Amino acid sequence: MNQIDYHANFLNSISDISEDIVEELLKISDLKTVKAGNQIVKLGEIPSKVYMLVSGVVRCYISTESGKEFNKSFYLPITFVAPLTALINQCPSIFVFETLLDCELYEVDYKKFMELCKKYDDLNTLYTKIIETVYITYEKRLVDLISLDAKDRYLELRNEIPNVETLIPQYHIASYLGITPVQLSRIRKKNGSC
To answer: Coiled coil where (predicted)?
Structure first.
C-alpha cells in the first residue's frame, strides 16, 4: 500500500476523502521523527501546527508554578495532536505536548489546512468530525474524573489502552489518574497488574 492509499484509508475511516485531497494534505505536511522526551508544543508557545501521530506515544500536560505536572491526555497512533484552543484563538498554549516514546508524526500547517477546508467541503466535514471526536473524548474524561473513583479510572484507562503499563511510565499514569504513584501501585496489586 502506497503512502497516499494508507492515509486515504485512515482519513476515510473518519469521513470520505478523495486521493486528490490526501495529496493536497501531504503537500502541507512534513513527516518527522521525534525522539522520546522532546516537546512538540512548548508552554506559552503560540502554535501553528497540528500533528497526526503515526507511531509512538505523546502526552499532554499542564505544569503549575511550582513545577508540578498534571497529565491531561495520552495520544496513541493514529490520532491528531494539538493544543486546539491555542490554535483556534492564536494564543499561547497552556499545555505542553511531549513525546513519551520515539514518535513518527505528520506536522501539518494549521493555517494552510484551514484554507484547504474552505476549498474542499469533504475536508471541512473531516475537520468537523475530528473536532467532534475531540469534544466527545474530553467530555468523557471529565465525566470519568467526576464520577469514577481512582480504581475505576485506572480500569477504564487499561480498557482504552490495554498495554498502558508497557507504554507509559507509572508516575505519568498516576498523574493522569489524579493519584500518587503509591496509590497506583496499590490499585495495580489489587487488580492483578503488577
So the answer is: none
Given this model, what pLDDT does residue 126 score?
Answer: 87
**C-alpha cell read off for 38:** 522532546
The amino acid at 106: Y
Residue 78, preceding peptide bond in cis (omega within 30° of 0): yes
Residues 4-25 have pLDDT tens digits of 555 566 666 776 778 888 888 8
β partners of residue 58: 75, 99
Task: Look up residue 87 and give its three cell numbers.
Answer: 490554535
CB-CB neighbours of 41 under 10 Å: 22
Report whether 131 contacts 90 (CB < 8 A). no
The tens digit of pLDDT for each residue in 34-61 reads 999 999 999 999 999 999 998 999 999 9
* DSSP code of residue 14: T
Determine the 3-state secondary structure of 2 from DSSP.
Answer: coil
- Find how far residue 172's CA is from the centre of its chain: 15
